[in-house]
Each structure stands twice: as structure tokens, then as C-alpha cells.
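Final report, closing paragraph on structural work. Over the funding period we assembled a curated collection of sequence-structure pairs, and we close with a single example.
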Amino acid sequence: MPARRPRAGCWPIALLAGVVLLCCLGAALAVQVSIASLGEPARGLPWPDRTFLAIYLVLNQRDLSSPAGTLEQTVTFEVEPGQDASAVAAALAERGVLENPTLFTRYLRYRGLDTGIEAGSYEVSGSMSPRALAEQLQRARASRYTLTIPEGWRKEEVADAAGNLGLAFSSDDFLAASRLELSPSLAGPPGVADVEGFLFPDTYQLGPQMTAGEVVAMMMENFDDRVGSDLMAAFEADGLTPFEAVTLASVVERESALPEERPLIASVFFNRLALGIPLQADPTVQYALGRQADGAWWKAPLTESDLGIDSPYNTYRYAGLPPGPIGNPGLASLESVASPADTAFLFFRAACDGSGRHVFATTFEAHVQNACP
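Its predicted structure, as stored:
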């Protein structure tokens, strides 16, 4: 009986299994070494990517700690809005700050720093290591093209601030760009061609080549991002269109000095609207009066003559909401309109202690008694 030959197919399988095991052990070791030397990998980084990047970075660890480029002096580097990590790396390479964009972007991805690079101005140098450069790009300093819009500013104030940044457009260009039709989702009245109220108050990093139209679009996109579907649904539940809600929020914004009072002030206006009582809000008159001889936009104090101005924005003469927003409200004022306090208040006036707070009343008699001595 012939001798049984050993099965030749088992050895390649065993060898392959051994190689796979060694590769897995090597990959695990590389990950552990990278964690020890480079820091924790980004959360949510897929295991295959984590393994590949760990091996790559361990093999190039020396370069990560060496000067990143040839440019020795420190320079100001601008990251433009919308630039991703690859675009930033390419721009750094053009400046001589970075010689190996691939190593740099892979390190950023491994550490999860690629999403932390914000538009702004940075002080960088080729003598910095890629690791130090990556950390530096997480700390933008204010760019000379930083535009901060406070809550409650009217569009002319926004235009003045934007036009004074030294960009390629003027304040008048910005105002012209703001005269456009609102999208149907914002439910403005027919023929409204003005974005007052929808230039969302925030801090913006602007690129030096941006146009006025692009800045206006950025602010309106920020409004869409910050005012989500839940707020829109709450406006509808209150019986308001988005345009009406923004209009009311703009009045609340100008009337309130303390955040905790916004829902109370909103409740007063809702109660007055329900009863057909004029809002009698001073800021609507200030808006109608416009810019004063001294350059101020919000005249204070108002006179009896001011309160009699014949303007549809004068809520002392005309009941209901003004024709449109009187400024650009922040998120807190929009939220107060979406969720006003449940009160019977019909009146409020400034407290007499100079704190900026208000005292509220349900009757005119109580309102009179709240007057300062």
C-alpha cells in the first residue's frame, strides 16, 4: 500500500495566516507606538485609516519633529473661509513654510486637527516642525478682515463696519447688495427686496477678495444654519411667519438689555398684538428717524414730536407689527419670540435704579405707579 503523501495545501494557508497575524501585531504595535509618541488618534477615525496613518507617521516621525520648510523668518499667513486642510497645506508649501504637504495633512487627519483650522490670521515659519505648525493653526488670531456684528444693529451699521475693513467694496456696495428678494421660505411680503433682519449677528472672517454680495450671502447662510427647523416650527405655532417673527424679534432685541427679560418683553408684545393695542416701542420710532446729525442711528431720548412722526414704523401711531425688521436680532431674541413667557403683562418701563432692567405691569394704573419719582 503506497505511503500517504502530506497535503501540500495546508502549509501555504498556515504561512498566510502567520503573515496576517504578524501584520496585525505589527499594526497594533505601530498604533501603540504612535499613541505614545504622537498622541491619541482622532475619535471616529476608521480602524484601517488609523492603522495606515499610524504606520506612516511612525516611519516618518523624525520629519514630524524637524523644520517643516525652508522659510526661516516668521510671516503672517491667512487661511481663507472655506479652505480645507489640503488647500491650507498647498498654500503653506507655496510660501516655503512646508516641504511635505502629504506628511502634514496625514498628521492633521490622524490627530483630528484637520477640522480645527479656522479662517483667520496665523504667525508661521518654516523653522517650525509640522507638529508645531499643526498646533499653531488651531489658534487663529483676529484677522484684519474680522467683522463682528453685534445683536440689534441695523443694516446701515453693518454696512459701515464692513465697508471700513479695507476690502474691495464700500458701505454703499454692501447696502446695494443687501437689496434683494428674500427666499420664499422666509415668507416676506410680496415685493420686499431687503435683507434687514437676516444679517445674522456674529463674528465673521472675511477673505480679502470677497465681494459685498458674498458677505451678505455668508450672513444669510449663517441665519439659515442657526435658525433651524425647530424655531421655524415654533414661529408657526405662535401664528407668525418667519418674516413676522424676525420683525418682532428685532423689536425685542432693541428693547431688552438683560437676556432673562427677553421672553417677558416678547410676552408683552404678543399680548398687545392679540388685543389690537399698538406696540408703542421706542426703537421702531428710532428706526424711522434714521441717522441723526451727530452720526448716531438710534436717537435717545425721544421727544413728544418724535413719537408723532408719520411713519409706518411708528408703533405709537400704527397698531400691529412694523412693516419689517428694525435691525438684525440675535438668536436669544429669536428664541424669546419662539417661546415667550406666559404672562398677562401689557406694559413695561425701565426700572429707576439704572440697572437696565424693566418693571412690568398688567394695567395702565400699575404702569403709571412704576414711573420714577
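Strands lie at 75-79, 120-124, 146-148, 203-205, 347-350, 358-361. The chain has three domains: 33-143, 146-226, 239-369. We thank the funder for supporting this effort.
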